[in-house]
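Let's do one together. I've listed all components of the complex below, 746 residues spread over two lines.
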Amino acid sequence: MFGLNKKDFSLLLIVAGLLLFAPFLLNPFPEGSAMAQFNGGYPDLMQRLVIFGIFAVGFNILFGLTGYLSFGHAAFLGVGSYAAIWMMKLLTMNVVPAIIMAVIFAGLFALVVGYISLRRSGIYFSILTLAFAQMSYALAYSVLTPITGGETGLQPKLADPRLLDGASDDGRIPQANLFGLDMGASYEMAVGPWLFTFNAGYYIAAAFMLLAFYIAIRIFRSPFGMMLRAIKSNQQRLNYTGLNARPYTLAAFVISGMYAGLAGGLLVAMDTQVGPERMFWTASGEVVLMTILGGAGTLIGPVLGAGVIKYMENIVSKINSTILHDWFAFLPDGIEDLLVTLIYPFVGKGWHLTLGIMFMLVVIFLPGGLVEGGQRIARLFGRGKKDEAAAETEAAKQQPPAE
Amino acid sequence: MDAIILQILNGLDKGSAYALIALGLTLIFGTLGVVNFAHGALFMIGAFCAVTFSRLLSLSYETVDPTKTDFLGNPAKINTPYVQDWFGMQTGSVIIDWAVPLSILFAIPVMLAVGVIMERGLIKHFYHRPHADQILVTFGLAIVLQEIIKFYYGANPIPTPAPAVFAGSFDFGTLMGFDPNTIIYPYWRLVYFAFAVAIIAGVFAFLQFTTFGMVVRAGMADRETVGLLGINIDKRFTIMFGIAAAVAGLAGVMYTPINSPNYHMGMDFLVLSFVVVVVGGMGSLPGAVLAGFVLGILESFASMAIVLETIPGLNQIIIYLVAIIILLTRPRGLMGRKGVMEE
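Okay, and this is what the predicted structure of the assembly comes out as:
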């Protein structure tokens, strides 16, 4: 179906199902219960999960498949965001042109950066992309202020021309919409004590996610994807066979840049503002974390990683010491205080610490990321069955031999 | 002329910091072949060694002074640092005043220990993994170290002043026959520059003139052969990692009066010092030092008002611009050798 084999198609179906039922799946606890703070089913978080999933899937095409570690991918996200917001300011609040322009501009920028950076490989490539990203950040922050809004960033204003929309009648800044469907529109469904929110913006982002994921599967399975894998496993050997790897790596770079641009455009569509901090190099580091954490080179891994990190960022970071004390209130006072003291550095404002430790553990013990972890557990329980899913990652994540 | 001299001077202290961090990075890269993204975190830990030490020195106890009262009429409390009790009033306050330079004594063993533990505990397992894995795991370590510091010291910068003796500025103008006040330069920055030069000279002398350094240099050239000669090269490399960590840490200690330490200063310097290393040529120690100073000075020239009027924002991007140009025209960097990090 859709040019996919049975296994890939079922993977696509699973992703589609997860996306469709995310408002239920992420809201397992009744409203008002003690566990309700672990509910991730509110629109803002779900949109972020999906958008950064797209970003990570794109990054994975470059890093997981081709083996080039870029430390500057947030630059493309930023360029996409700026392009999108300018479309909203100049043309219309409809998100379609904004997203299209985001993808195009990010792709063009990636073409320029990739053309230069891909002359080198390995650590030099990482540093070059880092240098480009930091440069774009500095430019967006200071020099290009007329275009980027500098430190304060950009958001739609009443005085913007918005050629297609015309002046807004009620004097309010119009909301981003899709042919009249407001991105912020939500339908809330109360089932007993549960409250599920279905948000238009989320489902639009989810549709793009599904499309992005489908394209990623096609790339992974195509001869082009095979070539990228060959580049990762041994570029020298490829050169000896008389093949020029540059066009392939450049294509991979541009594609992943376009994914980043799409994510940037969607971010603007959901929340109509941009700031230069979106391009800072730690933002590029974040997508690296997502991809590695979930499993570089696997299809579903980056989505998983993005989900885990964004979930932690939004949920774990909200746990403060009062909540911890509530949890352990049933224990004797001394033990309660001890437990809270022990756990407190890892949650709330310290959630980055948990993330860093988790990431290090994954890099050290689980190079295939959470996906490999899941497979190991699955193999442990179902030893008799031949693990087909393993074959996919095995083929994808062949590391180049150590020097 | 005076403007040029002023900019060169201005560039020196930033260049010194770049050069010291890049030197450590190159030492680690040259000996162990590991790309250490946690090196900026080591710089930051050094800076927080200074913070910790100056806090330790000013630990004090409270006594009630019956002769004085505060504005509410309660008896006033006075804090007496323990140091003043032990060394006497006068000496005690001098010691507290000199906390930053004195923290070098505290930072050296701490940084050596941190470096050795890091190498034995983590880096050692990554010798034979791809460079990407090394970057990733040290990047993770940098996040962890940064968060630990943030947890214990908070997110705000902590001012850590230099000794009062170095408070003023030195007037180069009168020394060189210009008008007074045309070329003035804070004393502490001079100290920092002199310190950086001393450390760099020390590291080079250590590598050049001691037997240990000779073995390490041999090991950098051909690790296997040195090992076959019956020398425990791993142990020496571990010590070199400790030394590299100490160099970064000391750079951090002495940098505290220039910029108050905060938890993300490591990451801020890390990116730049990687660029410095690449511009200098990976694995080349003189290259790292040269590139550090050159880029520091270039940055300060780019921040001149007259330059910024012509090309706004140049000061923020000059280093990256230079790095991109150098990497594309001279792929090995300024002083890089053949065959280092070339796939």
